[in-house]
Amino acid sequence: MSAASSPQAFTDVSVDPFVRGFLHRPPHPNGDALVLTHGAGSNCQAPLLIALAETFAEAGYIVLRCDLPYRQDRPYGPPGPGEAKRDRAGLKNTIAALKNVAPGRIFLGGHSYGGRQASMLSAELPEKAPEHAAGLLLFSYPLHPPRKPDQLRTQHLFNLHTPTLFVHGTSDPFGSIAEIEQALKLIPAQTKLLPVAGAGHDLGFKGKARREQLPADVLKEFQAFFRP
């Protein structure tokens, strides 16, 4: 078993909200790091996040899979309507914590709700803020609730100046590929969309099922998009 496949529990209680998750240290570090966080009904042990963390760590990235503050407070259930701001503060603290272990760029990634909060944090922060991510990796961005295409979650995209790679299933009820493509036009930063054929909101990682090729495909697109 390689060093990259043996994550270590990671906790920083010196900040509020505190940081909690699992740190994947690569066998051959490239200096860069990636934060990965989860969707509204999940946690940092989600199979999608584990598979991505293992693949990116093998490629040289330090990866931190982290629980958002609402999930640290309770093991089940979605976030409440007033918890998003604190969840973003938790992501901000996570980036600051990673700066102590990674000398290079720090990227912020998340699935669904976690990715949305990552993008909102990046839109809120000044571009030169120390906690500003070098780039975003967003999986299954929840553009609107299922069957409610008029309730778009795009207000902050006009202020998103962070390069962003979107990974989205072609059968995702939270937004079609055409709808995502239209939303990307609102973002002033450089963007790219990686469609996943036939995948829904879970991107093929439901229960024990997993798309074996997806993490490698994401890594390839990520490295090309965020080339130093």
Characterization of this structure:
It is a single chain. This protein is an alpha/beta fold and 228 residues long. The chain has a single domain, classed as Rossmann fold, CATH 3.40.50.1820. It is 28% helix and 19% strand. The chain has helices at residues 47-58, 69-73, 84-98, 113-124, 177-184, 214-225, and strands at 8-12, 19-24, 33-37, 62-66, 106-111, 135-139, 164-169, 191-196. It has an eight-stranded mixed beta sheet, sandwiched between helices.
Quick overview:
The protein has 228 residues and is of the alpha/beta class. The protein has helices at 47-58, 69-73, 84-98, 113-124, 177-184, 214-225, and strands at 8-12, 19-24, 33-37, 62-66, 106-111, 135-139, 164-169, 191-196. It has one domain (3-225): Rossmann fold (3-Layer(aba) Sandwich).
